[in-house]
């Protein structure tokens, strides 16, 4: 009997130069997942699938040192496929953790409390800086935090909140509010100094892409006359406004499914009090614009659509349309992950799903899908995960005469229109970088390690101010309402 890979080989495993031309011009690359196989379609998917079964020699090399030296690894979902493949195969108990930025900071403290002597944070710089500051605050200043690169690792969205234009937006909104109550929602993917700066101007509450809509609705329920600002992600702000306008067209019975205290009248009032910052976005989610959506509509009408809350309007609108047909979801990376896994559990049929977020989460997603299909799936059931990479994706050539050339190399998937399906900042964390740090720790190269160690440059005063918005959010997550102190300067 032919394997699934053999069945697909005639259509999709052609020479690379011809294969890219056909898949890029017509359809997006994808990864077909069965209970026992990964079948990539197109070079971008091949790159993502290449490291789902990692080199066991490399795994053992890293894992042995993690155990011996009690090193914890704390990584974001958007890591490079090779790096994620290796660290997820490590067996050090509680030593490797992959999640979003909020959970990463929490886990760092838990890992250290459980006995780990150092932490390698694989993410952008504000994540490692947050980990360092929070560990210091918890009394673990003696526990070193390491990056895997000596170069700065930025974040286009977090940096938007550090610019004067964001501060000016907050000051303007405060002035407009006058004596009326006002609160600012700040996205969790920002630095501690940005949160502290916002808190200095307007009472500020942190939010995630998973709870941002609930946060807005709850603030309006507790403080009906309160002006609500949101930033710095412009796409998420616009998408929030779109969702609120959509709710005003729904019957009260439907609105109460989102929040029991609201109806058409209260949502309409909320809209008059809502504003969002219009000059910030994530370079990854910026990718999902008109051309990508046109391709999805033409070629993937039968697929489930997932969209991160940070995607541009056209992709968000498409996902909203699919939600009305029970064929889509919008939310955080965790929301997307749970949606796909629940679909795999609830049907015996094969299905397709468009991954409307950073492609780095395919490592975790594919492992969970395969596990689900083994436990719940029907015979020959598959899930095809589609990567909506722009057809004009480009890459940088090593040949200086060529510069930028057509085609997807490795896994960048960056578009000439702007945006990347794979975060170029996150991909500065590499398996070679982690290996180098692990080897230096194993060999006791203290002086060389200092180049990779994260030094706390955030004062206790700023940390205290920045933690208040986070504590307000956590209070809401636990108690389903915000504390009164969250609305006070």
From TrEMBL:
EC number(s) stated in the UniProt entry for this protein: 2.5.1.72
Record-given protein name: quinolinate synthase
GO biological process, one term: 'de novo' NAD+ biosynthetic process from L-aspartate
SUPFAM superfamilies: NadA-like
Enzyme class: transferase
A GO molecular-function annotation: quinolinate synthetase A activity
Cofactor(s) the record lists: [4Fe-4S] cluster
Pfam family, one: NadA
Pathway annotation from the record: Cofactor biosynthesis; NAD(+) biosynthesis; quinolinate from iminoaspartate: step 1/1
The entry's keywords: 4Fe-4S, Iron, Iron-sulfur, Metal-binding, Pyridine nucleotide biosynthesis, Transferase
Keyword match Iron-sulfur: yes
PANTHER family attached to this UniProt entry: QUINOLINATE SYNTHASE, CHLOROPLASTIC, QUINOLINATE SYNTHETASE A
């Amino acid at each position: 009997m032919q394997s699934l890979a053999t069945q697909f080989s005639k259509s999709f495993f052609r020479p690379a130069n011809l294969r890219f031309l056909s898949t890029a011009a017509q359809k997006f690359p994808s990864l077909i997942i069965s209970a026992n196989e990964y079948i990539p379609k197109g070079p971008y998917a091949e790159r993502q699938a290449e490291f789902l079964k990692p080199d066991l020699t490399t795994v053992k090399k890293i894992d042995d040192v993690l155990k011996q030296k009690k090193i914890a690894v704390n990584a974001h979902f958007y890591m490079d496929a090779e790096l994620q493949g290796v660290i997820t195969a490590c067996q050090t108990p509680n030593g490797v953790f992959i999640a979003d930025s909020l959970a990463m900071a929490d886990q760092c403290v838990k890992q250290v409390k459980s006995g780990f002597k150092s932490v390698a944070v694989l993410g952008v710089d504000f994540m490692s800086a947050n980990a360092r500051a929070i560990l210091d605050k918890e009394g673990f200043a003696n526990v070193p935090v390491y990056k895997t690169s000596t170069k700065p690792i930025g974040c286009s969205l977090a940096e938007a909140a550090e610019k004067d234009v964001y501060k000016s937006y907050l000051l303007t909104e405060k002035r407009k509010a006058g004596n009326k109550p006002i609160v600012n929602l700040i996205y969790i993917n920002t630095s501690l100094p940005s949160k502290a700066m916002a808190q200095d101007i307007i009472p500020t509450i942190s939010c995630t892409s998973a709870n941002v809509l609930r946060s807005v609705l709850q603030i309006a329920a507790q403080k009906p006359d309160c002006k609500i600002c949101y930033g710095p992600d412009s796409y998420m702000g616009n998408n929030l406004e779109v969702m609120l306008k959509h709710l005003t067209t729904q019957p009260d019975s439907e609105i109460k499914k989102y929040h029991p205290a609201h109806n058409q009248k209260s949502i309409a009032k909320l809209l008059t009090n809502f504003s969002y910052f219009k000059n910030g976005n994530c370079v990854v989610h910026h990718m999902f614009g008109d051309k990508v959506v046109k391709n999805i509509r033409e070629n993937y009408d039968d697929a489930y659509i997932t969209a991160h809350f940070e995607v541009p309007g056209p992709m968000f609108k498409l996902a909203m349309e699919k939600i009305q047909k029970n064929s889509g979801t919008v939310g955080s990376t965790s929301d997307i992950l749970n949606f796909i896994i629940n679909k795999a559990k609830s049907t015996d049929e094969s299905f397709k799903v468009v991954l409307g977020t950073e492609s780095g989460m395919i490592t975790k997603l594919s492992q969970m899908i395969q596990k689900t299909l083994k436990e719940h799936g029907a015979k020959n059931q598959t899930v095809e995960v589609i990567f909506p990479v722009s057809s004009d994706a480009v890459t940088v050539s090593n040949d200086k005469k060529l510069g930028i050339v057509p085609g997807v190399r490795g896994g960048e998937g960056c578009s000439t229109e702007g945006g990347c399906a794979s975060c170029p900042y996150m991909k500065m964390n590499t398996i070679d970088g982690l290996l180098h740090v692990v080897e230096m720790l194993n060999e006791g190269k203290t002086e060389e390690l200092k180049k990779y160690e994260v030094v706390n440059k955030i004062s206790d005063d700023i940390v205290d101010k920045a933690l208040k918005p986070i504590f307000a959010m956590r209070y809401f997550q636990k108690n389903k309402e915000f504390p009164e102190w969250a609305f006070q300067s």
